Amino acid sequence: MKKSSKELSGKIALVTGGTKGIGKAIADKLAASGATVVVTARKLPEEEMEHHFIAADLTKSEAIAELTEKMIHQYGTPDILINNVGGTASPAGGFQMLSDEDWNKDIVLNLLASIRLDKAIVPRMIEKNSGAVVHISSLNGKIPLYQSNFSYGVMKSALNAYSKTLANEVAKHGIRVNTVSPGMVRTTAMETFLEGYAQSISKTVTEAAQQIMDGLGGVPMNRLAEPEEIANMVVFLVSDGAGYITGTNMLVDGGTYPAV
Amino acid sequence: MQLITKELAGKTALVTGGTKGIGRAIADRLLEAGALVIVTARNHPADGNMKHHFIAADITVAGEAEKMVGEINEKYGAIDILVNNMGGSNSPSGGFGVLTDEHWDSDLQLNLNSAVRLDRAILPQMAAKKDGVIIHISSVTGSLPVYESLGAYAVAKAALNNYSKSLSKEFTPQGIRVAAVSPGMVKTDTMDAYLQSLADTSGLSIAEVTQNLMSSLGGIPMGRMALPEEIAELVGFLVSPRASYITGVNYIIDGGANPSL
Q1: Where along chain A do its domains lie?
Q2: Of the N and C termini of chain B, which has fewer Cβ atoms inside 10 Å?
């Protein structure tokens, strides 16, 4: 195995939702490891950003082809694809609160966006007979929480199944596909979510966070993750040293998941 | 290969079964990352090519684990990282019917009880520092049993998985991370000898028995066995500060073999 001064030097990475939170931490760590990093999001972040940027709204199916063409033209076929985009704006309060529209939005943001981007990019990885794809999922895909984000958990569970299936199919083409399932992570998106949830149940943000942690069965590490701790796993997974790892779902959850 | 930084500088690591195969690759990897590495096995390695500190012990024997830990503490200080790599099976192939009580006892002792004893001997010093990492090297057979030849071994690994998770729940709040790693098929001397024995008893070629074993797992999407270095790389990651939010997991490294979600 080669040893280079920076383990990902010479690699091209595309990170969706890469301008803030977990996506930004991933982009930063990939760049620090020597990769050329292209991030995509609906708009440029306010603060200056070191990475290459292509604007795209991945909830729009037509945006995928445009993003792909710009990516290939300007930077080449990515060696590394991080499907980080995801989230939910659906109301809390259980299944009766969720409209068809809520469900459809969460399907697109958390599942279809990744499926569509993989369908555009992975065939080019197949042509090169190499590549690494990571789907950023969530512990909620394995531990659903009906009260706070019912549909999100369901869609992440679907994403897990999709990721495994794709991994099985493309292994013979030298492409590894894995999922990372973070537990609760300290980001502004998490803060926003907790504020909204706290309001909907008439509690403080601290109480709301505690309720979610309790709903998960408690967090043995007794804290949220930092985005960098998720990014560390992602960088490891796409490195050559992880060359025998595919079709897995790596939990990074402070021990929250309760089962064997 | 992963850029090797000295991220384990100042740490003392103990690797059981660390003189060959996966254990040796793990010991080498931790050394590269700057740890002081002690390996243990029943016998000193024959090839004399040992760059790690070595202590002979048979931790399948009651009392030996505690004695060994005491000697290590005296000579090297407290243990920060424990890799329970020792394991295996001497049971014959031929399915459930050929396994005697002795085979069951032996596989459980080697793959479960030894780790339990060693963890018990080491946890107090980790708890005192509120810091430590314990890795259990398990196997995909723990959730994907192979009955022809590894029936009791697979059961012991399943027990090890449950035990590892339970330990993590109890001790993570005390600052100790506990995780399991489940390799699929790994190309080691032990594997080669095992395939040879399967070939001898069946009359098939090595290639054929290898294919049969892969098929009994449901096929390996990556189409090959792992290298010991690849298992070591994952362990190296898990014991490092990069894995600071990771505990209570069982990471599968099997080239995609496990077919289930």
Answers
A1: 12-248
A2: C
Of A160, A243, A255, the CB nearest to B247: A255
In contact, B21 and B189? CB cutoff 8 Å: yes
Q: Answer whether residue B221 is part of any domain.
A: no
Could you tell me the pTM of the whole model? 0.95
User: How far is residue A83's CA from residue A16's CA, in Å, rounded to a whole number?
Assistant: 6
Instruction: Name the domain count of chain B.
Output: 1
B204 located within any domain: no
B48 pLDDT above the threshold of 70: no
| B104-145 tens-digit pLDDT | 999 999 999 999 999 999 999 999 999 999 999 999 999 999
pLDDT for the residue numbered A3: 45
Q: Which amino acid is at A143?
A: I
Q: Once rounded to an integer, what is the mean pLDDT over residues A44-71?
A: 95
pLDDT tens string B200-236: 989 999 999 999 888 887 899 999 999 999 999 999 9
Interface residue B159 vs chain A (CB under 8 A): no
**Domain hosting residue B88, numbered range:** 12-185+227-253
ipTM: 0.94
Give the domain CATH number at B155: 3.40.50.720
Q: Is position B153 annotated as part of the catalytic site?
A: yes
Q: Strand A12-16 vs strand A80-83: parallel, antiparallel, or unpaired? A: parallel
pLDDT at res. B261 = 86
Q: At residue B35, what is the residue type?
A: A
* Chain mean position to CA A26: 9
Strand partners, B133: B81, B177
Distance from C-alpha of A134 to C-alpha of A18, rounded to nearest angstrom: 13
Cβ within 8 Å, pair A255-B162: no
Determine the distance in angstroms separating the CA of A55 from the nearest CA of chain B, rounded to an integer.
Answer: 31
Pairwise CB contact (< 8 Å): B246 & A251: yes
Would you call B5 an interface residue with chain A, using a CB distance cutoff of 8 Å? Answer: no
CATH number of A12-248: 3.40.50.720
DSSP code of residue B226: B
Task: Answer yes or no: is B93 within a domain.
Answer: yes
List B147, B153, B163, B245, catalytic entry: B153
User: Cα(B4)–Cα(B233) distance, rounded to whole angstroms?
Assistant: 10
Would you say A156 and A182 are in contact if contact means Cβ atoms under 8 Å apart? no
Give residue-wise pLDDT tens across range B163-185.
Answer: 999 999 999 999 999 999 999 99
pLDDT at A2: 41
The answer as to whether B25 is a domain residue is yes
